[in-house]
Amino acid sequence: MHVNQERIEKYLNDIVTETKDLHSVLEQKEELILQDQNFLRSINYSTIVISEAIVSTIQHIPAKKHNVVFRAYAEAFGKAKKFQIVPKYLIEWLESLADFEICFCITTGGLMMSCFWKTSVPG
Fold first, then answer.
1. Cβ–Cβ < 8 Å for 55, 103
2. What pLDDT does residue 98 have?
3. Exposure letters 30-66 (e unless 16+ CB within 10 A, then b)
């Protein structure tokens, strides 16, 4: 099977588009972001789309080039390392991000980002 270049381009386009959207929202004053639910939803949505596109890209390439089946997203990083899909340092960085969940909390002091280590990683 061959890598679907259109699919990869869509994933990469999603990453670029949502990253630009995140930057435009985060350029706003913090008070404005906190007062506007649409800004907060935009941050949440963009973060999810970027994460999904990264993992989908990493999953698609070995699935098509090496006929590898994935049971869970967590397997994507190990298989990407094994088949050298992207540089090792990038996979290790992405793995470290997958080991925690990010929670955006609105506090009286403003927007706070908290990271919680997952108790288990599927796979």
1. no
2. 63
3. eeebeeeeebbebbeebeebbbebbbbbbbbbbbeee
The whole-angstrom separation of Cα 1 and Cα 54 is 21
Count H helices and E strands in the chain, helices first: 5, 2
Strands 110-117, 100-107: pairing is antiparallel
DSSP one-letter string for 63-116: HHHH----SSTHHHHHHHHHTT-S-HHHHHHHHHHHTEEEEEEEETTEEEEEEE
Task: Report residue 47: phi and psi, to 5°.
Answer: -60, -40
Segment 10-26 mean pLDDT? 92
Cα within 13 Å of Cα(117), Cβ side? 2
pTM, two decimals, is 0.70
Structure tokens at 21: 């959207």
